[in-house]
Amino acid sequence: MAFSTAVPAGERLPVTVLTGYLGAGKTTLLNRILTHEHGLKVAVIVNEFGEVGIDNQLVIDADEEIFEMNNGCICCTVRGDLIRIIGNLMKRRDRFDHLVIETTGLADPAPVIQTFFVDDDLRDELRLDAVVTLVDLRHVLQHWQADEVQEQLAFADVLLLNKADLVDEAERAAIEQRVRAINPMARLLTSTNADVPMQQILGVEAFELERALSLDPGFLVDDHDHEHDATVGSLALVEERPMDLDKLGSWLSELVAQRGPDLFRMKGIIQLAGEDCRYVFQSVHMLLDGDFDRPWKPGERRRTEFVIIGRDLDAAGLRAGFAACGA
Amino acid sequence: MAAEPVLVNEQLSGALQQPITALAWSPDGELVAIASGGGELLLLDFRAGCEELLRGDRDQSLDAIGFSSDGQFLMAVGQAGELLLWELGGSGVRPLALEPLALGAGWLDAAAWRPLGLLLAVAAGREVRLWDGASRQWCPQVLDLPGTVQALAWSADGALMAASCNGELALWQPLASPAPPPFRLATASAGLGLAFSPRAGLLAAGQMDRSLLLWPELGQGTPWQFSGFPAKVRLLAWSDQLGSLAPPLAVASGDTVVLWSQHDTGSRGWRPQPLLWHGARVNALAFAPGRPLLATASGDGTVALWDGNGALRQSLEGDGQGFNALAWRPDGQHLLAGGDQGRWWLWPVA
């Protein structure tokens, strides 16, 4: 299933999804977003009403409700409450220019993300800007094994390591390393009281294909994978030889058909044989999207970089399958 | 060849501050209510020749409005989660606002007066609640659903109420004595629109999974299921004209309108006729009372008028803004349309 739409990104309303385990500081960040002088009129949908504590007409309560679109497959679950509430809200879309959705601390981010790619109306009217996940530096290790924590880390485009004032530098660095092992792609920020520049959170454009991959430079070392201490981990694949698009497409289609529920996100920049342009690719569970991007720049290192974030990844099998897609 | 007579050649227009979300006529056709995404509610009184803004712009949407069957009450629900009611004294008498009733169930966007009497059904989260205009109180009966109520509808005789959520359609007889338990039908997805036919006892449900379900015998029979629509099926309207068997049914899905007619009672007895003309999503559709004329309104800035055979008779434009809502006056001679920039138009239709 592709997740693109014919409507240009600039005509669609940007949406930020705010996740984070209980107590990570989501409400504090929401209050900052609502009171900050960033010149944006932001509408906020919350799942835990009353906590925001701001009398604001654009804070809207929604009661989390998962709709299974197709035989209960996790890849086809969407959030019915968001479809209804955003449908109502979009009648007034000229009244605001950014939408923020706060999920509960125990929510799986995948149905929220999929809603914006699967629903007919929302796909054409909105664009997912980024998934922002708050991490409570003080307490996150206590909940580290919780599925929700690992999913929220895995799906993030921006990871905000919050409550930095409550840990020392060694503790912070250790957590950063563990977070990076699960998600090497996200922009990493550190904050106290969720005090962070708004432009780092809003307007990230993480789901725009041309921004497909921005890896921590230290992470992308050949033959190096990061799945030591958790069932959720990541794998970086690098290939110097040009790839074959047909082979790659078949491999990916089969991969998501078999392992879709365990593959949280994939992103890649692909060097194709006989093509002067980069090919960029991303996925969320079984939703795949790929397209030709800009030409390779002179002097740019032409190679394929591919990152997979998922649960119980079979590193050897994935490496072999990927390597077989060479042209 | 003689020219087709022109259906519309004059109009009345006005504007609210925010996009128009809902329109309603009083049963006698003398009053019209117009609601907006900012929570404005305008009442036009044609006999007295005046208008009153019952509520101003407060940046919280109103999404469903309606007059009770005897014209005594006007209701409105929306983003604030309250049921708003006005008691109407007739033309020229100022409406009296009742105390707002908070439901504590978040954004309210579906409510419908029973076609007879003074009962109002309100979708509030995972419940359908009933407010009784005679006692001015909530009724003790409540219909519970396993998910958030997406749509509700009364049968033409007011005996049966249908409500849908993801995976279920419930049929309820709140006034029967003793009241039987609700009859619950499993559906594959969420019913986004529900409509009982004015006669012949059919119930239509437009589904999120791009299908249309049609039950005979007020939901008790085996349904027809039609799939393959281009988008979710959200809007349904029955004609009050008799077809060869059932009355015609108009359905909107994305920018497509489909006119369904029944030719025999078999499994293949329903025939679709796509009405392909709009260039953007169809946001409202309604048959004119008492005549074979269908109006469809689209975000493309046009309202189209179709005859009973599905032929486009005329298209109407406002000032370019997209259309959100439509309502025919009960006489079938006047069409009210609301725009997505707040302007409304009233067209006499010959």
Would you write up a description of this structure?
The complex is a heterodimer of chains A (327) and B (350). Chain A has eight helices and 15 strands. Chain A has 327 residues and is α/β, with parallel strands linked by helices. Chain A folds into two domains: 9-207, Rossmann fold; 225-323, CobW-like, C-terminal domain (Hypothetical Protein Yjia, Chain: A,domain 2, 2-Layer Sandwich). The longest helix of chain A is centred in the C-terminal third of the chain and has 15 residues, at 245-259. Chain A is globular. Chain B folds into two domains: 11-104, Beta Barrel (Thrombin, subunit H), CATH 2.40.10; 105-348, YVTN repeat-like/Quinoprotein amine dehydrogenase (Methylamine Dehydrogenase, Chain H, 7 Propeller), CATH 2.130.10. Chain B is built from no helices and 31 strands. In chain B, strand 19 and strand 20 (224-226) form a beta hairpin. At the A-B interface, helix 2 of A face loops of B.
